[in-house]
Fold:
Amino acid sequence: MKAIRRFTVRPVLPEALQPLSDLARNLRWSWHAETRDLFQSVDPERWVSSGCDPVRLLGNVSSGRLAQLAQDRRFVRRLTDAAHELDEYVTGDRWYQSQPPERPDAIAYFSPEFGITAALPQYSGGLGILAGDHLKAASDLGVPLIGVGLLYRHGYFRQSLSRDGWQQEHYPVLDPNELPVSLLREADGTPARVSLALPGGTALHARIWLAQVGRVPLLLLDSDVEENDLGERGVTDRLYGGGSEHRLLQEMLLGIGGVRAVRTYCRLTGHARPEVFHTNEGHAGFLGLERIHELSAEGLDFDAALEAVRAGTVFTTHTPVPAGIDRFDRELVARHFGPAAELPRIDVERILRLGLETYPGGEPNLFNMAVMGLRLGQRANGVSLLHGQVSREMFAGLWPGFDPAEVPITSVTNGVHAPTWVAPEVLRLGARQIGAQRTEDALTVGGSDRWDAVADIPDQDIWDLRRSLREQLVTEVRERLYASWRQRGAGSAELGWIDGVLDPDVLTIGFARRVPSYKRLTLMLRDRDRLLDLLLHSERPVQIVVAGKAHPADDGGKRLVQELVRFADDPRVRHRIVFLPDYGMAMAQKLYPGCDIWLNNPLRPLEACGTSGMKAALNGCLNLSVLDGWWDEWFRPDFGWAIPTADGTAVDDDRRDDLEAAALYDLLEQRVAPRFYERGQAGLPDRWIEMVRQTLTHLGPKVLAGRMVREYVERLYTPAALAHRSMDHAAAGELAVWKSRVRAAWPHVTVDHVETTALTARAELGSTLSLRVLVGLGDLTPDDVEVQAVSGRVDTEDRITDGAAFPLKPAGGPDQEGRWLYEGPLSLDRTGPFGYTVRVLPSHRLLASGAELGLVAVPSEELVEGAGVLMR
Structure:
């Protein structure tokens, strides 16, 4: 019989065991080994059957066992120590508290998904895992972050396979009462709520669930409440599900409702109000509109409120392709805003103008969430050096007249949270080498360029560690493969072969990620005969573990999964290559440490960062990857291999895949496998072990989420907080009026004359020229602009390729024609083809960059042709 109602019965803990509840409700247990060990000792069998989830464990453990533990003095002492340690972690000073006083009082961090732990399945892939690692690292560093997301009742889908290898999706219902979250409540005990107005006079209501991630509160909005109609209750049903309006409502709830949730949380708890708002991808971009709406209630007009909001907003883009960005029809967006719906104090046309693609190459009727994020944020970044470059080129249309290199999008390369992703065996080896506390500090705070202590670890210890991790992976793969085949309908009698799948002494390659086409899941199948030779080589075999999910609506991705699965089902090779369904955090934490090689072969430059390879590297796994994302930035032959790319314009997609697959096979056959199996005098693969050592020494400190969050604090959060403080109502109004005046006057700003006078007789390296420039400023004054000279090497088409800009000084004016004279020296600081130009930019003390307005005046074509290139 089916129950008509479901609810969760919580255990009553004996007084001595009360701290267990606090430990279970703070997700620090997910990366703190001692706390996990404590919960495991409560009931080892139930710990495993509960999925290593303390909340589920405590819900299932017997009252008799709890009574027994309450009388166990050793257990109670361990529990007391763990509770005290957590309290010190949450309340004590950490790295952030020693930083300069201008640091922000609080930062709100918005993301559509958060991968904290498998016990809170609110993530689909890299974006969510990155967001989870960001929160954990912020907690370790003491950064006062407030996370904001949505609570999806179905999370992301669970994946299984049909008998013929076709991906099948399942959406298990998640009961928040069985998750490590609690309701945020008002002072009278009622659940705290936020509401959004909808067209037609209805509303979207949401409760606020709180997940405590170490020191960081994570607020998760849930629309499955009785006050909502059926459609509104389903807004937070599943991650990245539904059609356009469903997604729009999700993103309105995340951005607008998220700001309201933050305000509610700060009111109820006394937490400092955020000075900086960080939107992790465009999904949360509407948060800026809600903050403008707040300021309009305080008397600011739209333009002034926009300036105030921009000053404290950071926007991070994660996609290198326009197709990866959410875009909505303008009419759909317009219907959900204005007097009859949400944000009634803001004119709908002003809202639309922030997101419409009104630039060359854009589609003017589409509302682009990333474009809105960039227009609402004074500071923006990509997630690797290469991705920053790609983003500047992709969004250059928003800053017309500027070279992509000057588009104001910087980069902070992603990192990964080492305590989450490093195997306990690796942590123990580090603790033996330098002590537990120094190991913890190195993995969380970071700050060093090298981990030199790795040099002192004996070769035998490194090799024994790698084999042990590989052996654990083999056991894990066999268990998961058996469960997968049973789900596919196989009987136990036909699965005896699984006991021989993989070998703990064979070179093991890992490949696991989402399955969009650009990640090329099946590139390894391009020449199946060569792959067979690699897998079945008599002396140097390789084995491959593959995992990944295709989006439920992506049949092309599902076909790639099926193609890989069918190859792996072949009895000739199924002991050497496996596909594991339902890739998630729990699987990943076994997969990264157990592999010798982490394979990544995306179409360059479509991988924004690719943090899976970072997690592998922290466990001593070597990377074999296309030079994309973070690998393009930090690759060195000492600790990995680069797959050559065939990205010339004359190469079509098929030919490119053929060439790059051939290069992959060559590397595996000629360099990777021989090095793994080569033995030195002591019977160890000395050169392989040295590459592992170099990976840990040089890559380890770089790939840390602690390093990433420190960069955000120093390069983005603190400047944004300072800008926010300087942008009071008066300053915001002043800047808005100034921008309006400059935009109106800019068509009349001109560069009218440029002349060069040599200060030395010959133009040689180190000599200096004097520039004199006449500019027309129309209704503007020299206080409104900066006149610059830009000089550097030039290419064959006279484009300045590595220009440096420096200001010229006003020397007189206005003349009878209203022109102003500017002068300055031009140093010839390099040999070879050299050129210069001049330009006029808007200038104001409150601008973050000269490119902020997207306005620039340069010499006319006639003037350029008359001046020519300075020197050849």
